[in-house]
Write a structure and sequence with these properties.
The protein has 332 residues and is of the alpha+beta class. Strands 1-2-3-5-4 form a 5-stranded antiparallel β-sheet, with helices on one face. Strands 6-9 form a two-stranded antiparallel ribbon. Helix 4 runs antiparallel to helix 5, helix 5 runs parallel beside helix 10 and helix 6 packs across helix 8. The chain is globular and about 60 Å long.
Length: 332
């Protein structure tokens, strides 16, 4: 810690408390003799390359110049914003007093403001990032292939077998088995609706959700965690974000708020209703075939996402039943 703080001329550490919301990296609230800071340990191997982090920091600096609220990194004496200490990459940011808000805490007008913010992010990224045709992340080939249901059926069988071997069984096992059987039946019913390869792409934040947006006095203060910045279908990020922000505990989306959010997003990003309709279909199919929370639980023994599973898994069945209403909310 002392070596790290010396690089930033940030004083002497007084206290260091972990920030628990992140699933992939480690973060701390750091108090020193010079002030309060947010210290991020880039521990996720997929995004921890120091040069890549520096490039993402440069992007956020350019976005800040266009008025996008971001948490800018602090620079060391040599101008670099990433410190490598003991083989690990760290970044230091000023501490921003604020909190996170989910869609249930937002009014319809605040939901519209959220959509406008994400639309502005996408529009501004188009201005500050390299042209998509010349620079494209090697890990994100496009157009995007949608999930293959044959692979999903095999994964469902594997997860059901893992649940069967889990002793003693518990309430989570019961719900997981129920949702897996339900999902298999839904996939069998909707096999013919697999979407084609993805189309138009653009630069996106990559992980836009409530824990990556800080509010202060009911207004967005900073978008954080740009580790997944990359080239992807933009409208799909808008749909994914709405499916997280506006997800109710019972597994339904708050469609009036989604509608306000989507209208503002389309205006700010200039996305067309047809783009949003295609994105709704692809994200629905993605959710129908996705079991990352169960894979974490049964393959890795990682239970940190278990609390999200009841609502997220119920959403798939609800979305399938309310498919037309969801499309209308995003496109009208």
């Amino acid at each position: 810690m002392s070596a790290l703080l010396r690089l930033y001329s940030a004083g002497t550490a007084v206290s260091c408390e972990p920030v628990d919301q992140g699933l992939l990296n480690r973060a701390y609230r750091l108090c020193t003799t010079r002030g309060h800071y947010f210290l991020k340990h880039h521990s996720d191997p997929d995004t921890a390359d120091p040069e890549s982090i520096e490039r993402r920091h440069r992007a956020t600096e350019r976005l800040a110049g266009l008025g996008v609220p971001v948490a800018l990194p602090l620079a060391q004496r040599d101008g670099r914003t990433v410190a490598v200490v003991g083989g690990h990459a760290y970044a230091l940011h000023p501490w921003i007093d604020g909190g996170h808000r989910h869609g249930g805490q937002l009014t319809r007008s605040e939901s519209a403001r959220l959509g406008a913010l994400l639309g502005a992010v996408h529009a501004c990224l188009e201005r500050v990032m390299p042209p998509k045709g010349r620079t494209r992340p090697a890990t994100s080939p496009h157009p995007v292939e949608s999930a293959d249901p044959a692979d999903t059926f095999a994964l469902i069988d594997d997860l059901l077998a893992r649940i069967g071997r889990h002793r003693p069984g518990d309430i989570f096992d019961t719900l997981a088995r129920q949702r897996l059987l339900e999902r298999r039946a839904l996939l069998e019913q909707h096999l013919g609706r697999r979407p084609p390869r993805g189309g138009a792409v653009g630069w996106v934040h990559g992980d836009f959700h409530p824990f990556n947006l800080l509010y202060k006095e009911n207004a967005p203060a900073a978008i954080v965690d740009w580790d997944r910045l990359g080239v992807q279908p933009r409208a799909e990020e808008a749909v994914r974000a709405a499916a997280i922000f506006f997800l109710r505990a019972a597994g339904a989306l708050d469609l009036p708020k989604v509608r306000a959010y989507a209208r503002a997003y389309r205006r700010a990003s200039r996305a067309t209703p047809s783009e949003l309709a295609a994105a709704v279909h692809r994200v629905w199919w993605e959710r129908l075939n996705d079991f990352w929370m169960l894979r974490w639980h049964y393959e890795r023994g990682d239970t940190r996402a278990d609390c999200q599973f009841p609502a997220a898994s119920a959403l798939v069945a609800w979305w399938t039943r309310a498919y037309e209403a969801v499309c209308e909310a995003f496109t009208e």
